[in-house]
Amino acid sequence: MVGRTYLDWNATAPLRAEAGAALAEALALPGNPSSIHAEGRAARRVVETAREQVAALVHARASEVTFTSSGTEANMLALTPAIETAAEKRPRDRLLTSAVEHASVRSGGRFPREAVSEIAVDAEGRIDLAALGEALAKTQRPLVSLMLANNETGVVEPVAAAAELVHAAGGLLHVDAVQAAGRIDCDIAALGTDLVTLSAHKIGGPKGVGALIRAREDIHLRDPLIRGGGQERGLRAGTENLPGIAAFGAAAAAAGIARAAEAGAMRELRDRLEAGLREACPRAVIFGAGAERLPNTTLFAAPGMKAETAVIGFDLEGVAVSSGAACSSGKVQPSHVLAAMGVSGPLARSAVRVSLGWSTTAADIERFQNAWIKLAAALSKEQRGMAA
Ligand code: PLP
Question: Is the pTM for the entire model greater than 0.85?
């Protein structure tokens, strides 16, 4: 087999060259960013440069960035009743999320189970804004957590419209932009959100680094997950992951510069891939196709196909794709995202996700198509056999 075709970028992206270089440089630094000697100050400069780079990706201020160990941890840090603003010191009384969120948000964070409600989505996977409005009307001081783009379907949520409703109801909005960052423009002010989560490994940084970013300095998280030293303004104790943070910053800077060009190229290849999918199997369903989607993601199913069999079939042809949600790949469970979109269990169990990235080429798409032509032919032969 000549090389591999990696089409599982929503699970994780390869390290960008810029991130690898920053990582290696930071690994060679001896100092602790909290030390006041020259070595410490050099390490501190690396952290603060990365903070600026990560902030720039969402057009935020560097002082509002808190580095964490992952997107998951950033979501956990954000989802607490103990968020104060200049105007509201009392704890948040409810967490409202959508039915298609990442498992970390669906867990409810530090809210008691009974204080968490899930808002329905439409058949394309977009949050039902009327239902959000109704739920907000029943709360006093809600925290709302929505993803900007879905990890399985790539569907982009109407976050700016949701933000208006949330703020009109006296609520705060947290946005999980883990899949959206680097793929579509993420401007913290234009989105109208109060808090944003990012993860390094989806944008070409290393795994195991994330960030929670505030829109304003008057938003105070009173309930850190990790206490100890005063790192990250007391919000996340522990000596900073200097190489990881440096590489996150470099990846964010590279992603910011290349985003428009990369997104255009990915969209063209993704559209070609979808045309080929339908050509080889006209019954193939592409989920969320009627909504705005990330330029790199296709979640599709073919009636009668088993996702695991398809993923193994693609793998044998040298193509890496995934079934169901990336973060829970390996678990044979129908996706909660497709269930929330009203997709039947059997069709949901046949869903395969293909996600492209900045180094995906036309040859990768051709290889995917050739593998799919074989799989689709085997599927229709099997189905003809069953019908006979
Ligand atoms: N949020 C979304 C939408 C994701 O897709 C993921 C991971 O796939 C996460 C959060 C978690 O990020 P991390 O892997 O950094 O914990």
Answer: yes
